[in-house]
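Progress note, sequence design subtask.
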């Protein structure tokens, strides 16, 4: 297998199969992260339903799921196989993360919401980094749609603004306003 795509372009800096292999590892790692982000954002939206956080995160969770599907489409277009074990590991890790004690045994702690918002913010920042990398490669590889990647990057920036605002308000609720 070589790094030439259907368009006949070769991604500069990816000499031989190792470049394609590295891109495959990179995208599969981001797919695992996207899986965690999708699961975590849906969980947060469900557990906070009817609150400011739940109402604001529900549409973001839908976008995060759409972004995961966009990543899968990009991977297909680049002929990058999905490494299912990474997806499964991401799902297991996300569920295991829910077991963490946050100072309340019977009910949900405000700290849980804060930490979940922080995790989402980190995940969306990572996703934005991946869109930036792919956008940079789009100039050299006709299989990547630069306009679509610009749109995905702008959406990630909007998600970061929403999550960041919610995170700061949740921190005030959790620890008391200064």
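Output:
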């Amino acid at each position: 297998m070589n790094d030439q795509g259907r368009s006949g372009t070769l991604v500069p800096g990816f000499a031989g199969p190792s470049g394609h292999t590295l891109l495959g590892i990179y995208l599969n790692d981001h797919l695992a992260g996207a899986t965690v982000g999708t699961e975590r954002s849906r969980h947060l939206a469900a557990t906070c339903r009817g609150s400011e956080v739940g109402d604001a995160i529900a549409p973001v969770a839908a976008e995060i799921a759409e972004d995961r599907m966009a990543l899968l489409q990009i991977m297909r277009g680049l002929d990058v196989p999905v490494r299912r074990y990474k997806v499964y590991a991401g799902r297991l890790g996300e569920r295991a993360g829910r077991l963490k004690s946050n100072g309340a045994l019977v009910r949900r702690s405000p700290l849980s919401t804060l930490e979940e918002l922080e995790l989402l913010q980190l995940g969306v920042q990572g996703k934005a980094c991946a869109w930036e990398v792919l956008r940079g490669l789009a100039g050299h590889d006709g299989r990547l749609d630069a306009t679509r990647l610009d749109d995905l990057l702008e959406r990630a920036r909007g998600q970061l603004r929403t999550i960041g605002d919610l995170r700061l308000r949740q921190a005030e609720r959790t620890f008391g306003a200064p």
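The chain has five helices and no strands. Work on this subtask will continue into the next period as scheduled.
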